[in-house]
């Protein structure tokens, strides 16, 4: 089957969430059913960049061509990778090769192949994104992925987002929960000023989490790759 691909890159480190620091390759698919106001990957859905409709076998060849034998973990992100049926075959081949597979999705579209993923990150969107959470769909996700290696990650830009994050964590109390700082300057090329404002926001979010009883078992993270490479694409 074919999958629309925006970019394949790595090895790099996973900069976010449940396996932060993990050495991994990335496959970024095209298209999204959301359009978050602050999306740092707009080029996957805003029409500015064309995707490459690739056979799964060719995606795997490309991973091996650029990664050689220097990886054993593949992260599928987007856009929303859950739009694409062909991911099922990609997971199968990755597993045959002995690679683990992670996914980043917002939890709006269910696919049965989601159950085969080794690390699932579901990232529902807070009010600042201007997107509306469909709780029926999110409940279905969490029910289906019960007993699997799943986590929730909410990006926080302001107090209303933090309240939303508390609501999500309370709704699914047994799912490992991650708070992530929001990057407000996704087109900045001034790395020094970007990093300094991101670190200030990180301190702010840590302070919010330490004051919240609901967040007693939450993990508070920055986007590590942004601290290292700024807004550079393909890292
Ligand atoms: C680009 S999205 C792709 C996967 C999927 N569409 C999703 O949103 O989960 C990957 C991750 O980046 C996060 N993200 C996007 N823009 C961001 C920003 N400006 N600051 C911080 N995190 C951001 C998303 O919330 C998501 O967790
Ligand atoms: N290093 C690195 N880590 C990431 N974690 C999530 C990413 C994404 O865009 O989905 C991402 C990314 O683009 N790069
Ligand atoms: S759901 Fe993810 S890829 Fe889609 S617009 Fe939001 S952050 Fe961007
Ligand atoms: Mg990203």
Automatic annotation (TrEMBL):
<comment type="function">
    <text>Catalyzes the complex heterocyclic radical-mediated conversion of 6-carboxy-5,6,7,8-tetrahydropterin (CPH4) to 7-carboxy-7-deazaguanine (CDG), a step common to the biosynthetic pathways of all 7-deazapurine-containing compounds.</text>
</comment>
<feature type="binding site">
    <location>
        <position position="39"/>
    </location>
    <ligand>
        <name>[4Fe-4S] cluster</name>
    </ligand>
</feature>
<comment type="pathway">
    <text>Purine metabolism; 7-cyano-7-deazaguanine biosynthesis.</text>
</comment>
<dbReference type="InterPro" id="IPR058240">
    <property type="entry name" value="rSAM_sf"/>
</dbReference>
<feature type="domain" description="Radical SAM core">
    <location>
        <begin position="19"/>
        <end position="231"/>
    </location>
</feature>
<feature type="binding site">
    <location>
        <position position="41"/>
    </location>
    <ligand>
        <name>Mg(2+)</name>
    </ligand>
</feature>
<dbReference type="InterPro" id="IPR007197">
    <property type="entry name" value="rSAM"/>
</dbReference>
<comment type="subunit">
    <text>Homodimer.</text>
</comment>
<dbReference type="InterPro" id="IPR024924">
    <property type="entry name" value="7-CO-7-deazaguanine_synth-like"/>
</dbReference>
<feature type="binding site">
    <location>
        <position position="77"/>
    </location>
    <ligand>
        <name>substrate</name>
    </ligand>
</feature>
<comment type="similarity">
    <text>Belongs to the radical SAM superfamily. 7-carboxy-7-deazaguanine synthase family.</text>
</comment>
<feature type="binding site">
    <location>
        <begin position="38"/>
        <end position="40"/>
    </location>
    <ligand>
        <name>S-adenosyl-L-methionine</name>
    </ligand>
</feature>
<feature type="binding site">
    <location>
        <position position="79"/>
    </location>
    <ligand>
        <name>S-adenosyl-L-methionine</name>
    </ligand>
</feature>
<dbReference type="InterPro" id="IPR013785">
    <property type="entry name" value="Aldolase_TIM"/>
</dbReference>
<feature type="binding site">
    <location>
        <position position="28"/>
    </location>
    <ligand>
        <name>substrate</name>
    </ligand>
</feature>
<keyword id="KW-0408">Iron</keyword>
<dbReference type="GO" id="GO:0016829">
    <property type="term" value="F:lyase activity"/>
</dbReference>
<keyword id="KW-0460">Magnesium</keyword>
<keyword id="KW-0456">Lyase</keyword>
<feature type="binding site">
    <location>
        <begin position="123"/>
        <end position="125"/>
    </location>
    <ligand>
        <name>S-adenosyl-L-methionine</name>
    </ligand>
</feature>
<protein>
    <recommendedName>
        <fullName>7-carboxy-7-deazaguanine synthase</fullName>
        <ecNumber>4.3.99.3</ecNumber>
    </recommendedName>
</protein>
<keyword id="KW-0949">S-adenosyl-L-methionine</keyword>
<keyword id="KW-0411">Iron-sulfur</keyword>
<feature type="binding site">
    <location>
        <begin position="13"/>
        <end position="15"/>
    </location>
    <ligand>
        <name>substrate</name>
    </ligand>
</feature>
<feature type="binding site">
    <location>
        <position position="32"/>
    </location>
    <ligand>
        <name>[4Fe-4S] cluster</name>
    </ligand>
</feature>
<keyword id="KW-0004">4Fe-4S</keyword>
<dbReference type="InterPro" id="IPR017742">
    <property type="entry name" value="Deazaguanine_synth"/>
</dbReference>
<dbReference type="Pfam" id="PF04055">
    <property type="entry name" value="Radical_SAM"/>
</dbReference>
<keyword id="KW-0479">Metal-binding</keyword>
<feature type="binding site">
    <location>
        <position position="36"/>
    </location>
    <ligand>
        <name>[4Fe-4S] cluster</name>
    </ligand>
</feature>
<keyword id="KW-0671">Queuosine biosynthesis</keyword>
């Amino acid at each position: 089957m074919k999958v629309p691909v925006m970019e394949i890159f790595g090895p790099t480190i996973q900069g976010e969430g449940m396996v932060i620091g993990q050495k991994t390759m990335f496959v970024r698919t095209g298209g999204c059913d959301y359009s978050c106001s602050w999306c740092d990957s707009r080029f996957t859905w805003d029409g500015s960049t064309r995707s490459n409709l690739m056979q799964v076998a060719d995606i795997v060849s490309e991973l091996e061509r650029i990664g050689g034998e220097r990886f054993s973990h593949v992260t599928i992100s987007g856009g929303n990778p859950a739009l694409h049926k062909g991911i099922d075959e990609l997971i199968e081949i990755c597993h045959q090769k002995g690679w683990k597979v992670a996914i980043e999705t917002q939890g709006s579209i269910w696919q049965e192949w989601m159950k085969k993923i080794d690390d699932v990150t579901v990232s529902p969107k807070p009010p600042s994104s201007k997107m509306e959470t469909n709780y029926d769909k999110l409940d279905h996700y969490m029910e289906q992925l019960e007993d699997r290696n799943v986590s929730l990650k909410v990006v926080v830009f302001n107090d209303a987002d933090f309240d939303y994050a508390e609501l999500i964590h309370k709704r699914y109390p047994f799912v490992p929960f991650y708070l992530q700082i929001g990057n407000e300057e996704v087109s900045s090329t001034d790395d020094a000023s970007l990093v300094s404002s991101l670190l200030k926001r990180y301190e702010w979010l840590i302070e919010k989490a330490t004051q919240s009883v609901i967040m007693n078992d939450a993990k508070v993270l920055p986007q590590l790759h942004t601290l290292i490479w700024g807004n550079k694409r393909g890292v």
